[in-house]
Amino acid sequence: MSAETALSPDLENGPTDEELVASTLKGDLGAYDELIRRFQGRLYGVIYHLTSNHEDTNDLLMEVFDKAYRSLPTFRGQSSFYTWIYRIAINRSFNFLDKRKRRQGSMSLNELDEDGLPKLDLPDISPQNNPNKSIMLNELQNKLNESMLKLSKEHRTVVTLFDIQGLAHAEIAKIMGCTEGTVRSRLHYAHKQLQKSLGIYLKK
Amino acid sequence: MSQKEDFSELQKLLQLKRLETPGPDYFERFVDAFHIYQRREILQKEPWYSKVVEVLFEPWVAGVPRLATVAASVACLLGGVAFFLGPIQSGSVTLANGKVAHPRGILVAASQKEESLQIQPELIDTAAGGETTELRPLYVNGHGAVAYDSRLAF
Lengths: 204, 154
Hints:
The complex is a heterodimer of chains A (204) and B (154).
Chain A: H1 9-13, H2 17-25, H3 29-51, H4 54-71, H5 81-104, H6 131-150, H7 153-164, H8 169-176, H9 180-198
Helix pairs in contact in A: 2-3, 3-4, 3-5, 3-7, 4-5, 5-8, 6-9, 7-9, 8-9
Chain B: H1 8-14, H2 24-43, H3 50-57, E1 60-61, E2 64-65, H4 67-85, E3 93-94, E4 100-102, E5 106-108, E6 124-125, E7 132-133, E8 137-141, E9 144-148
């Protein structure tokens, strides 16, 4: 399981998501805060890897939790809360991407955070004592983001959920409302596209 | 799987993107920031059209159609059915003598007052040229009886 999907200690020992939803509906706002803490990291990751912009991700994440809170009375438990809130995050991100595309014709790489790197308080992954390696790593990250943005939003979503967040095909299918076969086929196509554009950075 | 379809190196590379996440401080502050956001959203008065725009651009929430989407679809459907099956169209013409001629040659014998449309079973002047013709009421709708003059049909 990836770092982003790792279970928090509360999730292992505390109430389940569905119990927290029930408590929230009874008026316990602290329960919703707990749900936010459980999902904020993973949802941040999904939205960020779709938008490639940290400010937009922050705004969208607020919107997602707000929307989910308002829609909670309509949550009937037919799917897990986890699937449900992921769907909201992906739908919101897709709407945002469509609006951005309509506004600008197509996604401009200038909309990415500077150098493709986050502006927020991110851990510095650049090797401290090797400036050449650091430059190469930055270049690689830029290229990686650029290649991801060339994929359609559906392909980018499956790559994000599978390769970056480590979800299983079945979980992705539930979230995206499609079959596992579709997930596999989208993933295969996306991998081929990425392999083509990132080939020079990959070991033969 | 062929050599070309081995994506393991690519998948390792993609894992680099896991590092593109804010530090723990951001997430520790997020719940408080969210409360501020929610209060601001509640206090902010939405313009009347925002709900319409929201339903138009986002008719589904998490894969489930909104109640407003369902209601609007049903209203459109009923409106369409009423339009095609409705016995009388709304546009009508008031004749010189105060009688009302309905489009498609239907004459409605009525008083001047819109709210009191009613049949006058006696002779009715037609819109064709003021000839006096006896018309027989054909059916009754919500406004009263309706008479039909075939010479006006088109």
